[in-house]
Amino acid sequence: MEKKFFYAQVPPLRCGKDLDNRWKYEIPAYRVAPHVWNVGGQDDVCAYLLDSGEGLILIDTGYEQTLYMLIDRMWRIGFDPKNIKMILLSHWHGDHVNGCRFLKEMSGAEVWLSAVDEEQHQLHKDDNHPQRIVPYTVDHLYDDSKPIELGRFQIHTRLCPGHTPGATSFRFDDTDEETGQTYHCAMHGGLGVFPMMAPETLAKNGQSEEQAHRFVRDCLEMAQWDVDIMLASHLNQGNVLPNIPKDTNDYHVFVAGYAWGDILRNRARAVMDLYPDTYPPRENE
Ligand SMILES: [Zn+2]
What we know:
This protein has 285 residues and is of the alpha/beta class. Strand 9 (153-159) and strand 10 (168-175) form a beta hairpin. The radius of gyration is 18 Å and the shape is globular. The longest helix has 14 residues, at 259-272. The chain contains seven helices and twelve strands. The structure holds zinc ion (ZN).
């Protein structure tokens, strides 16, 4: 079987580079699950819109410079940004949070983050590299023992440190009323491993190597989850770009049971390779 989805090096993760020319990287909104669309509007970082039937949920918000694309994509697929009730942030980095303040002011949405990354947010809120953090306030902290509920969705959170100490993954079911089919969907909170999890970076940030080892353990454990649709948090994490269908309303291409496990195991291996003394080489697997 030819696998369409895998961890790909392209498009290169721009992470704030060339934002002056963001229109060069624009993509349409496309549907990834019965009630879920990527409305991020560019080929780098995703922002997932969930239509709960009782208001909208947004997972991540993209860059401040690409916010107009996100708002445009929402209107184009028939949603009013003022109906966003919840903004769930995967981690504190600017490429995921910088649309948050504007969207909250527009909609009154409540903003969620993990307690650990709220601490990081406070520590780094004045950083200017690789982009500034647009000031915003967090209303709720995730409690992984309690799903977040709105309308048809019950979203389970899971702390998965590594990319940041408080990166959080999301897992939920979505049913297509036309077919009766239910899909297990999941988004990992942070799969970028380099340089974040390299020994020298962790040391520089005063963080323990244990964070990298925890990431490896979590990825290998979470790879066992039964996930039909993997929501990539950056398009390259799933080789998504070449697979966006012409009919952007047809989500079926994204139903790929292998993708989640394959990609998480790939990322665990990438971290293991940063610690050759701790982990046996690839040939022994
Ligand atoms: Zn990040």
